[in-house]
Write a structure and sequence with these properties.
The complex is a heterodimer of chains A (about 260) and B (about 270). Chain A is mainly alpha-helical and about 260 residues long. Chain A contains 12 helices and no strands. With about 270 residues, chain B is α/β, with parallel strands linked by helices. Classes of the chains: A mainly alpha (about 260), B alpha/beta (about 270).
Amino acid sequence: MSPSLRWFINTIPVVAVFLMTIGIWQIVVSVYEIHPIILPSPLGVFETLWEARVELGKGFLATGLAAVLGLGTSLSLGVLVAIGFSQALWIRRAFYPYVVFLQTVPIVAIAPLLVIWSGYQLRTVVLVAAIVCAFPIVSNMTTGLISIDQNLRDLFRLYGATRWQELLKLRLPHALSHLILGLRISAGLAVIGAIVGEFFVATNATDFAGLGTLMTGWQNQAKTSAVMAAILVSTLLGIAMLTSVNLLGGVLLRRWTRNADFENE
Amino acid sequence: MSAVGISIQDATFAYSNSPPVLNDLNLDIAPGEVVALLGASGCGKSTLLKAVANLITLQSGEILFDGEQPTHRSGDFSFVFQDANLLPWRTVRQNVELPTELGAGRVIRGERDLSSGTESLTAKSEAIESVLHSVQLPEAAFEKFPRELSGGMRMRTSIARALVTDPSILLLDEPFAALDDLLRTRLNELVLELWSQHKRTIVFVTHNIAEAVFLSHRVAILAHGKIACLLENKLAWPRESEQRVSPEFAAIYASISQALAEAQES
């Protein structure tokens, strides 16, 4: 079976479930005459989506920018931290718990603090996004850097490799596939982080509001269908981020790994 | 580089909190000799090989190379592991190149210094080309990645990588255990051919008695951390694949398997 045909067949159930849900939803709303503030009909949501397309499009870009910047910050800092961790066990023992702290602390609890420190601006939103998506990057990258086959390490020692050569020619390339896996998790988290950040900070750095800001505003005006349209757009943003990471991973790893993960999705 | 003799004297080694794997082990290997290490799993064969390669430090005893301490000789050994242990992100050619990039740069195949300069760069690519040909890899495979190769080709790449530094001692740790019989036979012949060109000292660990008979000058059987039995392999040189079905081969095979059984019982 050709891959495109298999993809088509695999897609049918997903689309079928989607259409069925939409159908039932539409019928329930029409039959029971539910008020649009409580639950708008799917058609109503799509109508709003079209009416607010300019705002939502700009929101997509604003939140997307914050999420990408957050992910980028986390990526560059996370890789450096992981390289530090890979250098010695005691470094990991001393500092790793603080990375776990980043993962476990409720971001909504510290976001107000970040606003106090960093102000009502894009930087704060990026910071929130970066904190939310840091853990998968650091933990996966660290695992990739230290889980090296003993024989390969012996091989490098045998030829008198320096620490630097071992890092550059063995550990970093080995960690790349782990890093991509971490990035796939972090890509979705970065979008969540950016939207949560925007709940607290209405940025005007890009001259237009992000999805989180739009949602807050529409919630206050009880525009339920608009909030739902914004949810739909933020989901699309998450998918766009994940797809980009997958494409990047595919390009980087295609030739030398059995990247079943990247081919099946 | 000329072959080097190995003298293992009273070697003792234990992993932490366990009985010694090597226990006052003594073994002398002549320059250019091929020695097979046989023995039950966990008898210390691989540990002995690692000790020779200076990858582990003995608790007591020493290993001399042509009568000298090993400190200034590191890099003179090459190691071939059971699974080829190639770097998956490098092509065949780049994998073979790897040893030349590590450490302080090396003298490779002959006296050419390949660590710097354009002239030495061409010398380097020629050396790599020739070593790739010497393990009989098809040219089409040179730019392929390990996952695109068969198990046999991966092993050939691994051997090429071991040979590129022109080592005086070649250490093989169950190199062909994961391959089927036909491939194993072919690679055994390759090892013999490579040995006849440079007469390097070769120490190899194996579980396959036929392999030990076909390749070695002597067979050392390990048990309880010592050499339990050292057998002279009288199979005539040069070795040809027809010898595998000869009565001499069968007789040597039988005596080795008997010695192996006795060593395990004692």
